């Protein structure tokens, strides 16, 4: 594990080389899973409202 100072230095090095640091790379999202999660959250919210 890097210390905070070393991590900042590594991040600056990546930025100077126009490389996106690993922690900031976009993670592909599944629209089907997002829909199912939103649907489940809506159902739980509605049941909580009824109670």
What does this structure look like?
This protein is mainly alpha-helical and 51 residues long. It has helices at residues 4-16, 31-50. The longest helix has 20 residues, at 31-50. The protein is elongated, with a radius of gyration of 20 Å. 0% of the residues are buried. The mean pLDDT is 78.
Summarize the structure.
The chain is an all-alpha fold. It is built from two helices and no strands. The protein has helices at 4-16, 31-50.
Set down the secondary structure blueprint.
Blueprint: H1 4-16, H2 31-50
Keywords:
single chain; 51 residues; mainly alpha; 65% helix; elongated
Radius of gyration from the CA trace? 20 Å
Protein structure class: mainly alpha
Overall 3D form:
elongated
The topology string of helices and strands comes to: HH
Largest sheet features = none
What is the percentage of strand-forming residues? under 5%
Percent in helix: 55-70%
**Averaging pLDDT over every residue, what do you get?**
78
Count of alpha/pi helices: 2
Distance between the termini: 47 Å
List segments where confidence is low: pLDDT < 50 over at least 5 consecutive residues.
none
Number of strands: 0
